[in-house]
Design brief:
The protein is mainly α. The protein has helices spanning about 5-15, 20-35, 75-90, 95-100, 105-110, 110-115, 115-135; strands at about 55-65, 65-75. It has a single domain, classed as Sufe protein. Chain: A (Alpha-Beta Complex). Helices cover about 55% and strands about 10% of the residues. Belongs to the SufE family.
Length: about 140
């Protein structure tokens, strides 16, 4: 059975807790970003661009059998890792669950504390874009 948003967040917190310092955590985020499937070139448009990010980040949703799936990409490695972790949490979930999700894992793994203000703002812009898609369905 598909994991729910809370279960996925717990899994992410557990994975990050095994990493000893921020260098390892940032490297792990970069590796997660490298695992994202290729983003379709035709979707590199303003429509899918996340506003409020210092880097360029694209997120494209598709609704399949009542569940949202997301494709994403970024032009920087760390930001690509951040969007990868967010779509890991949200892809395959119902729009209602996405729209109502509380993302405690961001604080628990320390992302909010260790990211620069501009990256932190970008992270929250990504969350808003993903939740915005869920609210429009």
């Amino acid at each position: 059975m598909k994991q729910n948003i809370e279960e996925i967040q717990k899994e992410i917190v557990s994975e990050f807790s095994e990493l000893t310092d921020w260098e390892e955590k940032f490297q792990y985020l970069i590796e997660l970003g490298e695992e994202l499937p290729k983003f379709p070139d035709e979707k590199r448009t303003e429509e899918y661009l996340v506003p409020g990010c210092q880097s360029r980040v694209w997120v494209a949703p598709k609704l399949t059998e009542g569940r949202l799936e997301f494709d994403a990409d970024s032009d920087t490695a760390l930001t690509k890792g951040l969007i990868a972790i967010l779509i890991r949490v949200f892809s395959g979930q119902s729009p209602e669950d996405i729209a109502n999700a509380s993302l405690g894992f961001i604080e628990e793994v320390g992302l909010a504390k260790f990211l620069s203000i501009s990256r932190r703002n970008g992270l929250f812009s990504m969350v808003q874009k993903l939740k915005g898609y869920a609210e429009k369905v």
